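Please predict the structure of the following assembly.
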Amino acid sequence: MSRLTDANVVIAKEIIGRYPRPKSALVPLLHLSQEQNGYITREAMVHLGELVGVTSAEVYGTATFYEMFRFEPVGKYLINMCGTMSCALMGAGELMHHAEHKLGVKAGGTTADGMFTLAHAECQAACTEAPTLQVNYRYRFHVTPTDFDNLVDDLRAGKLADEIPAHGVLAKVRQRIPADKGVGAVAPEDVTEGPAWLDGKPAL
Amino acid sequence: MSSYPHAPGFVAGDRPKVVTSRFEYTDSFTIERYLATDGYAALRKALSKPAADIHEEVKGATVLGRGGAGFPAGTKWGLTPQQVWPRYLVVNGDESEPGTYKDRLLMERDPHQLIEGCLIACYAAGLSQCFLYIRGEMALAQERVATALNEAYAAGYVGKNILGSKFSVDIVLHWGAGAYVVGEETALIESLEGNRGMPRLKPPFFPAANGLYGQPTIVNNVETLANLPWLIRNGVEAYTAIGTKTSPGTRMVAVSGHVKRPGVYEIINGTTTFRDLIFGEEFCGGIRNGNKLKAFVPGGGSAPWFTPDQLDLPFEASQVGPAGSMLGSGAIMVMDETTDIPAAALTLTHFYAHESCGKCTPCREGGTWLERILTRVVNGTGTDADLQQLIEVGTSICPGDFPHASNEALGLSAVPFPYKMTTICFVGPSAYAPIHSALTLFRSEFEARVTKRITIPVTAVGAAS
């Protein structure tokens, strides 16, 4: 059921093919799976294990290390509220308090309609724009309580659907390496010589 | 001085722009804009010389690593063992040190500059495949770099026989999934191999000798690589004419917290002082609401804190280290007189305790202990013994004297950086650094908490205005 679809298997194989060792593709493939299903299921981990040639236990081991992977459904919109120092200095604590009241859930909870999951997050690399939050990993800066209310209302009304995709979708553009342009990945043990351009002469 | 809505946080000034020259353009991330502004000219120039010459230029320019450790890139490239192939380049775009905001801007606003930097590095150091690891939470950066790579492949700047030459390299976009520790280079490599992102014991796993798949691997920070196109285009002399001999060029610095104009600035390395940055009119313009400066973190959440006593130190590692802290990743967090110091320290200790990967016991257990004890103190339910316990736990992570700044009013002299540590990486010590600084420089605030049992909600670390 939540194995990758045929179309996604094609994408998965393309991704795997870029690495000298297939297991390297695991984190990107977990993202692909989360993009498809909204979270990571047991069947998905079994399938990814088959695709990269490791056991499902190894997939589980890797997946559970990383915070972005969810193992049960989350709201359509995951709101990550930064609470690290720069944001805390600029009122992130009060903002979280406000968010909990607005959504009627404590941090970590999901609203009854399945629209929002509210979460504590750590530094989001936008410290000069504090306090910050991310909705499905799209930023909002200098967030005031009013901004937060407007954001939630707009999301509920579907006004931001173009900008903010459902949980699981990260970049909307995928890397594509055309077959005739790429060098191709080679397992390290199959490389015996140094690069051609290290011959002491200019490459051009 | 101007700021641009399309580059949130960035403040341009009348200073040399090595890595931010295109930020003024709204379309700075497109290949059209890049090509119209000297884009890929450095690649062409590099390929017209032998690879070893380009390596020498980077060595000669002393391009210091901008990720935190400050190790010169050219020297790092030279540490790979002879005749061991293949060698890889891994780009560290996993920016997540508290306070740090620069690599994300460089990836979002000028991805082609980064790609060109990767190509120059691969050419010079004989690296045959590049993996560009972007932090998982940075969806826009992933999108911009993916688009730029697709454009660059189509135009023949990346891939097989670049510009028709014998130089061929693939750049593979890779992205993480939320783990601060993966910013440590050996953990980054573990993550790139599809494993849990836990650091490897060094030695023997210095990546230059034994990195990705056990092969020689160079790990460079985004900003470091973004410097290379300008350097190759303009030459070593022009590059070293900016900044000082030991810290040439510019640096991206983010100043956040209680300043009038928080922002990301490209500053002249080595000479700009913390006073310039925090109070200078061309930078942050002083403390908000005319308040007084209480303390600042000079180099990211891991760095021991400074007070106004250290304002005149320049952005120069050889001076900041002996003064008891580090420049780290170019992140300054400023606290004014209204700041609740123990609560501020707790936000950082919470961060590092939360981000511990669990491999080393002193960090896994110690970080959590530090967080729990400090939470008690902040909530007003701690005791005198808790303050002593914080130091004992901290000392088990970092034995001996922990680095701290001098303080005239307290009669303290500086203990120089770095610290000793019982852990593989710096996450454990970083959980202790804010506590040690806060307790050393502002002990009375902790004592007031434990004796008078002042209870204030943890939310009031600082106020919005």
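The first strand of chain B starts at residue 2 and ends at 3. The mean pLDDT of chain B is 96.
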